[in-house]
Automatic annotation (TrEMBL):
Record family assignment: Belongs to the CcmE/CycJ family.
Species the sequence originates in: Duganella radicis
Name this protein carries in UniProt: Cytochrome c-type biogenesis protein CcmE
Listed NCBIfam families: PRK13254.1-1, PRK13254.1-3, PRK13254.1-5
Gene for this chain: ccmE
Domain of life of the organism encoding this protein: Bacteria
Amino acid sequence: MKPRQKRLVLVAAGLALLALAAWLISSAFQKNLVFSVTPTEVLASADRARNLRMGGLVEKGSLRRDGDGVTVDFIITDLAQRVPVRYSGILPDLFKEGKGAVVQGKLGADGVFTATEVLAKHDENYMPPDAARALKEAAEAKDKK
């Protein structure tokens, strides 16, 4: 094999390895990618297998604790749609009814969002951008009625 052919084979092998590495990185990102959505978008989506991060308000009067004291049911709303959420674990100290929250998990076939993580807003001004937009649109729609 001539030196030129060896160089060509090495360049081709290098490009193939680079393409393989790019594909592996891309597939790892796709598996761990979490989309931020509102309750309206969750209910409109047919994809129930994907991990989602849903933001909105914890509906007043919806917080229920099971007998074990660890499992909690509540409703997240964007004032247009409501999604029941079930979470097993300790809630953050700032988690309250009527306040903003972000839950991460999957929507089950029964329509209940099973959360693996619950985050509460950290001050009076914070709200996830998508949730703030959805709440504003819902409030404008109510005003028009």
